[in-house]
Structure formats: structure tokens, C-alpha cells
Amino acid sequence: MTVVSMIRRLFVPSRNGRRAFSRIAFIGLGNMGGHMARNLVKKGYKLTAFDVNAAAVSSLVEAGANGASNAAEASEDADMVISMLPSNQHVLECYTGENGILNSVRNNALLVDSSTVDPAISEEVGIRAKRSGVRFVDAPVSGGVNAASAGTLTFMVGGSKSDFEDAKQVLTALGSRVIHCGNIGTGQATKLCNNMLLAISMIGTAEAFNLGERLGLEPKVLASVINSSSGKCWSSELYNPVPGVVENVPSSNEYKGGFGTALMTKDLGLAQSAATRTEASIPLGSLAHQIYRATMGHGFGKQDFSVVYQFLKGKY
Ligand code: NAD
What lines the ligand 1 site, CB under 6 Å? Predict the structure, then answer.
């Protein structure tokens, strides 16, 4: 911690109540974070950006942000910090490491972690943040890279009602829905439950259409019956895994874009850890995790998660 930031932390008074955030630090400028940070710059926020990938920082600087050389430096003048990092260890390092956010950030700043991580990691960062005199919410997102670019993400937020209301002021610039799920960690918990159900229903849809095809059914006819019957779900109706059944979804574009199989597999791993810790029984979630791990093992990791249909067909 620099002398300047120590003095700031001692003398900057707590600021309670709603107020506008003027200086934002953004950490993690990858597929999602790059678009989110750009959207904040476009909306007029004064942004300081950091990523371990220097090229990602340069690209944000060209878009109008200031660059920083580590997370602590990016955060020292910020009244809000938003992070969008790959997974558990990156979030811990970025918040609590030697050059981490908690080593420099101003008293009462609001920290918003939008990465998808284990709810226990959010709880731990929340405790460390409180000890350092700063506020923390977890705010993972649903919606992929296109929603990040269009500013139409859904945020699932865990934290106090007051911190949620403050975070919402900025998150509405990045998403069309910002939902308060409960205390710190519940944003992540909500995201993991949704994605586990999505994985299970996608595999179920892929199985049903694979069986239908083996039985000689036309996929579009089968879809029209399922989607007006009790088997209907989001995967069968709006994101069908069979090429050509629904236009403009990844399955109709060689499974490009969308939500990667590697990311779905990661989320299922987080759900599995959370279930083990809480002794919840998730037999289908565990099986879905293994099916997606096998799908990845056969080289489908970078394709959209609906590619599990091709895996079940033995197309590898
Ligand atoms: P990504 O790998 O493209 O980006 C992560 C960025 O973090 C990279 O640029 C990396 O260099 C940077 N980074 C890693 N460690 C760092 C550190 N210590 N300090 C600073 N920067 C660091 O990942 P993404 O696709 O942008 O996803 C980010 C998060 O959002 C993940 O948790 C993911 O599960 C979640 N998510 C992704 C999608 C999607 O469709 N891509 C959708 C919903 C949620």
C-alpha cells in the first residue's frame, strides 16, 4: 500500500446513502469484461482499466480509459471497482494478493465481482472487504458476449440491499435486468443453480432429438410437437441443439459463438463443489458435469454447449 493510499484510507470520510459513482476501476478485460468496460466509457464514466494481458489494456486505453499496471493501482482512486475474471483463484489473487484491490482501495468504495465463482469465494472476499472498510457484492451475469456488447446482460446480485441499490446505478448501464438475490454469495448461488438446470435440460433435449432421429423422425416436426407439449423447455424451443431447427442460434452456425462448452463445464464443477459442501444431492447435475467433461475431452470445448448433441451422436 502506498503512503498516499494509506493517508486516503485514514482520512477519506465514509459516504453513506445513494450517490453517483464517478471513478470506476475495471479489472479483467477479456471476452466479457472488454465489452462491459467499453460500454462504461461510452456512457461517460471515468474508467481505469487493468488486465494481466497488456494488449487488452491498450485496447481499452484507445477506447478512452486510463490504463493501470496492476489491480491495486487501478483501484486506488476508484469509488467503484468491477471485476470480470475467469475463476476462483483469479478473483482471490486480484482482491487479496500483494498488488490486489484490497491493498489500495478507498474507504467505503463499492467492489462488484461479476466473475462466475464458487459462492464461498464471494463470501470470503466479502469478509476480507468488510475488514478493510470497503463494501462488496457478487454480481455474476447471464447472457454471453453478445449481451455484454449490447449492454443487455442480466446481473444476479448478492449483498446488502443498500449496496445492491448503489451497484444497480452503474450495472443498469451494462444490463437490462439487475436482480437482488440476497446476501453476499447468493448471486453466484443463483447463477450456478440456473446453469446446472440449463445443462441438464440441454442434454435431455439433445438425447430426445437424437433418439427421434434414430426413430426416423424429422427434427423440425419433432420440435413443433415438443414445443407445444409438456417436454418444451428453453433448449428445445429457443436454442435447439439440432442444426437448422432454429435459425440464428449456434447449432445452425456450426456451434460457433454462444456459451462455450468449457465455460458450462466450469460452472458445473462449481455447482458440484457447492453441492458437496452443502451435502445437496444433485445426481443429474453430477452426471451433466461428467458428460460435459467428456464432451470437452473430445475436442468440443470451444464450441457452444449445445454441441453436446453432436457428442451424443458420436460425431467426434
Ligand atoms: P476471459 O478469459 O475471456 O477473460 C478473463 C480476463 O481476465 C482475461 O483477459 C485475463 O487476462 C484476465 N485476468 C486473469 N487473471 C487476472 C488477474 N489476476 N488480474 C487481471 N486480469 C486477469 O473470460 P470471459 O469469457 O470474459 O469470462 C469472464 C467471467 O464471466 C468468467 O467467470 C465466466 O465464467 C463468466 N461468464 C462468461 C460468459 C461468456 O459467454 N463468455 C457468460 C457468462 C458469464
Answer: 27-33, 50-53, 56, 71, 84-87, 90, 93-94, 115-116, 141, 144-145, 259, 263
Ligand 1 centre from 12 Cα, in Å?
A: 32
Q: What is the mean pLDDT of residues 207-231?
A: 98
Minimal-distance CA residue to ligand 1 atom 29:
115
Q: 34-82, pLDDT tens digit by residue?
A: 999 999 999 999 999 999 999 999 999 999 999 999 999 999 999 999 9
Q: How far apart are the first and last CA of the chain?
A: 52
Do 74 and 93 touch, CB atoms closer than 8 A? no
Instruction: Ligand 1 pocket test: pick from 84, 98, 113, 267 the residue with the most ligand atoms within 8 Å of its Cβ.
Output: 84
Domain co-membership, 175 together with 193: no
Determine contact, residues 250/256, Cβ cutoff 8 Å: yes
Return the CATH number at 157.
Answer: 3.40.50.720
pTM for the complete prediction?
Answer: 0.91
* Active-site residue (options: 191, 220, 232, 315): 191
The answer on pLDDT for 5 being more than 90 is no
* Percentage above 70 pLDDT, the chain: 94
Q: Both 197 and 177 in a single domain?
A: no
Specify whether 191 is catalytic.
Answer: yes
The CATH number of the domain holding residue 213 is 1.10.1040.10
User: Is residue 144 very low, low, confident or very high in pLDDT (cuts 50, 70, 90)?
Assistant: confident
Helices of type H across 139-260: 145-150, 161-171, 186-214, 219-226, 234-237
93 and 236 assigned to the same domain:
no
pLDDT at 106: 95
CA 27 to ligand 1 center in whole angstroms: 10
Distance between CA atoms of residues 300 and 310, nearest Å: 9
User: For residue 287, what is its C-alpha cell?
Assistant: 452426471
Domain that holds residue 114: 3-183
